[in-house]
Amino acid sequence: MKRVIVVAAVIAVATLAAQAATAGRSSSGPPTSIGKGEGTLTMVAWEGYLQPQWVTPFEQQTGCQIQAKYAGSSDEMVTLMRQGGGGQYDMVSASGDASLRLIYGHDVAPVNVALVKPWKQFFPAFKSPPNNTVKGVHYGISLQFGPNVLMYDTKAVKTPPTSWAAIYDPKYKGEITVPDNPIQIADAALYLSKTQPSLGITDPYELTKPQFDATVALLKKQRPLVKKYWVYASDEEQLFKGGDAVIGAAWPQAESDLLAAHVPVASLIPKEGATSWLDTWMISAKAKHPNCAYKWLNYISTPKVQAEQAVSYPETPVNSLACPFMNKLKAGSCDKFHANEPLAYYRSLKFWKTPIADCGNGKDDCMDYTAWQQAWTEIKG
Amino acid sequence: MLAETTLVAGRRRLSAFGWRRPWLRAAALLTPPLAWFVLIYLLALVALFVSAFWSVNPFTTELEHHWNVDNFTQIFQDSTLRTIALRTIWMAAAVTLTDAVLALPIAYFMARLASPRLRAALFVAVLVPLWASYLARVYSWRLILQSDGVLNWTLAKAGLPSLGVGYSLWAMWIVFSYIWLPFMILPVFAAFERIPESMLEASADLGARAWTTTRRVVLPLALPGLVAGSIFTFSLTLGDFITPQLVGGGQQLIGNVVYSSVGIANNVPFAAAYACIPVAVMAVYLLIARRLGAFEAL
Question: With contacts defined as CB-CB under 8 Å, which chain A residues touch B164?
Fold first, then answer.
C-alpha cells in the first residue's frame, strides 16, 4: 500500500513538472500570464538599441540581466537566431526584411499582446503591421522606425543634394559609402522607379528579372565610385571623420554621432523618398527566459522608454504617448522625428520587407532574397 | 610506510614494464596529442569536406543532406567567385614576395653582422609587435592610411601630393606585409645563422667575390628558410578575413566570402566548398616547399 502511494506521488510530481516545463513553450500557445523573471535575458540587437540609459533601470526593476550581441545586418540576425538549432538568444530586434523569414522559419513564437499593456497606446498602423503579424497572429511588438537617409559632409559638398542621384554621380568618385547589405538593392530600385518610369517599378522589394537586372547594372556602375561598403554604423562614422567619404546612404544614428563629434554633416530624405526600417522585438520559439522577455516587451513599449530610445538613436517611436517625453528630453525632437504625425510620414517611406518570388501578380516571377544576396556578392566583387 | 614501499615498487615495476616494451611507451606518450590531432583537426577537416556536398534550403536556410556537387559547380562557373579566389592567391603571393625582400637584409644583418647586443635588440624589435593585439595593429594602420591620416599628413608636410591608398587593395597589401613580416624574418634568420663561416672562407679562397659568394653560396643555403617563412606568410594571408574587412574598400578575399557565407547567409555547405580552395592551394604549395627543403629549416 505504501509503495502504491509513493508511485502515485512520483507520477503526480512528474506530470506537474512536465506541465510546468511545457507551459512556456510555443507548442501550447503563447503564455497567458507573466511569471517571475528568470534572472537573465539574452538578446540580438542593432547597435544602439540597448543603451545603459534604459537597460540599467530595467535590470534593476526586474532583476533580468541583459546579455546582448550586436548584429551588423538582418541576415546576421536571422543566422544568429537559428545557430545551434535556435534558443541561444531569447529575443531579437528584427527589421522588416528579417521578421518574415523568422516567422515562416518557425524561429520565433507568437506573442500574447494582451500581456503587453502599452501596446494599446500604439498608433493603429503599428499594432498589427504586416511585417510582424501574419493571419491575425502577432509574432512580436513593434518598436521604432526610421528612414535610410542621404548624408553628406557640408564642407565638401557645397550645394546640398536633393536626389539619390548624388550617390551614383562620378563627381564623387572614391568618396561615396553605402551599407554592405543586399537590401541596399532596394534603394537603387527606388531611385530607378522615379528616374526610369519605363521599367515599371512600383515596389522596390518586388522586382521582376528585367527590373532587377537594370537595378544591379546601376549598382555595378556605382561600384568603382564607392570608397567602402560599411558594415557597422561606426565604420561609416570613421569614414566621414577621416575624410574618406563625403556622401553616402546612412542611418540617422551616424549623423547624430558625427554631429556630437563636431564633424560637419547633414542629412535629408531625397525627393525620390527613402527606404526605411520598422523594427520588432520578437521572442525566440525556444526562448529560455520567456518571463524576462515579456517584462522587456512591457518596459520597452512604455512612452518614456520609447522616447528615450527615439531621441538617443534617433528614430520614431510607435507609442502615440511618447511625444511629450521626447520634447522633455530634447526640445523639438518630437516634431523633428515626426512622432506626432507618423501615419503621413509612414506612407512616405518604403518599409523593408523580405523579397520573395510571389509578389502578388500571380506569376511568381519576382527575384527572391537568395538572388538578391548572390547579386550583392557579384556587385561588390 | 609499508604502503609507500609498495607504491614505489609498483612504480618501478611499471617503468620496467615500459622499458621492456618500447612501443607501449611510445603509444602512451603519443596517444593524447595524436587523439587531439585526429579528433579536433583531421575530423574537422573531414567534416568540412563532407558538408561541402550538402545544400541549404534557400528560404529557411536549414541544412538539407542531399549529396550534390552544386556548390563546386557554382564556384567554377561564377566569375565573381573565380576573381575573388585569384585575387586572394595573388595577394598572398605579393605579400610573400614583399616580406621576402624585406626580411632578407634584416635577417642577414641580424645573423652575421650585428653584435650580440644589437642582435638581441633587433630580436626584441621584431617580436614586440606580436605582443600587441592583431586588431589594435590593423586599426592603427587604418588611422595611418585614411585620407586625413598620418601618411598624408606627413606627405603634405614634405610638400608631396597625398596618396589615396586607404580602404583599397594597396592598404590590404601594406597591412598584410607588415603583420606577417616577423614570421618571415625568424626562419630566414635561422637559415643564415646556420651557414658555417668556413664555407664563406672557402668561397673566397676559391676566388669568388662578395656578390658571387652571396649568389652561389649564401642565397641557396638561405632558400629553405625563405620557403619556410613563405609558408607562414602565404597561408596566413590566404585565410585572413579581418584585415580586408577593416582596411579594404569592399574587395573580398576568400576568407570574407567564407565568413559571410557562414555568419550572414548561414550557408555552411557553400562556405565549406569555397574553403576547399585555400586547402588545395596550400597542399600544392607545401609539396613544392618540401621539394625545396623547407621542412629542414623549420
Answer: 174
Q: Which of B204, B295, B280 is nearest to B235 (CA)?
A: B280
Q: Is residue A255 part of a domain?
A: yes
pLDDT one-digit tens code per residue, B129-143: 899 999 999 999 999
User: Between A101, A244, A370, which is nearest B166 by CB?
Assistant: A244
Average pLDDT, stretch A110-131?
92
Question: Would you give the end-to-end CA distance of chain A in angstroms?
Answer: 78
Same domain, A215 and A290: no
Q: Which domains does chain B have, with CATH numbers?
A: 2-51 (no CATH), 79-296 (1.10.3720.10)
Query: Which of A278-292, B151-165, B248-262 has the largest mean confidence?
Result: A278-292
Residues A191 and A68 in one domain: no
Contacting residues for A23 by C-beta, under 8 A, at least 6 apart: A31
On chain A, the residues whose CB falls within 8 A of the CB of B245 are 231
Say yes or no to pLDDT of A262 above 90: yes
Together in a domain, A241 and A366: yes
Q: What total of structural domains would you count in chain A?
A: 2
Whether residues A228 and B83 touch (CB distance < 8 A) is answered with no
Q: How many CB pairs under 8 A join A and B?
A: 79
Q: Which structural domain range is residue A74 located in?
A: 10-143+278-351
Which one of A234, A377, A378, A379 makes the best mutation probe of the B interface by having the most chain B beta carbons within 10 Å? A377
With contacts defined as CB-CB under 8 Å, which chain A residues touch B251? 380-381
Collapsing DSSP to helix, strand or coil, A268 comes out as: strand
Residue A3 lies in a domain: no
In whole angstroms, give the CA distance from residue A244 to residue A263: 13
> Is there a domain that residue A169 lies in?
yes
Q: What is the pLDDT of residue A23?
A: 40
**Per-residue 3-state assignment (H helix, E strand, C coil) for A55-103:** HHHHHHHHCCEEEEEEECCHHHHHHHHHHHHCCCCCEEEECHHHHHHHH
* Beta carbons of A378 and B264 less than 8 Å apart: no
Hey, are the CB atoms on A244 and B84 less than 8 Å from each other? no
Asked if B250 and A228 come within 8 Å (Cβ–Cβ), the reply is yes
Report pTM: 0.79
Judged by CB atoms closer than 8 Å, whether chains meet at B250 and A226 is answered as yes
Q: Determine, for residues B265 and A79 on separate chains, whether the beta-carbon distance falls below 8 Å.
A: yes
- Using 50, 70 and 90 to split pLDDT, how confident is the model at A16? very low
- Residue A98 at interface with chain B, using a CB cutoff of 8 Å: no
Residue A31 sits in a domain whose CATH number is 3.40.190.10
Task: Give the residue from chain B lying closest to A181, CA to CA.
Answer: B264
Residue A93 burial (C-beta neighbours within 10 Å; 0-12, 13-18, 19+): buried
Whether residues A36 and A139 fall in one domain? yes
Partner residue opposite B80 with nearest CB, options A76, A239, A381: A381
A257 and A331 housed in the same domain: no
Mutate to test the interface with B, among A107, A222, A223, A373 (most CBs of B within 10 A): A373
Three-state secondary structure call for residue A229: strand
How far away is chain B from the Cα of A71, in angstroms, using its nearest Cα?
10
Could you report the per-residue pLDDT of B35-79, keeping only the tens digit for each? 888 888 888 888 888 989 988 776 666 778 888 888 899 888 888
Same domain for A226 and A285? no
In a shared domain, residues A134 and A32: yes
**Residue A123 placed within a domain:** yes
Asked if A286 and A87 touch (Cβ cutoff 8 Å), the reply is yes
> Are both A272 and A151 inside the same structural domain?
yes
User: Under 8 Å CB-to-CB from B78, ≥6 apart: which residues?
Assistant: A378
Q: What angle do CA A194, A200, A205 make, to 5 degrees?
A: 80
pLDDT > 70 fraction of chain A, expressed in percent and rounded: 92
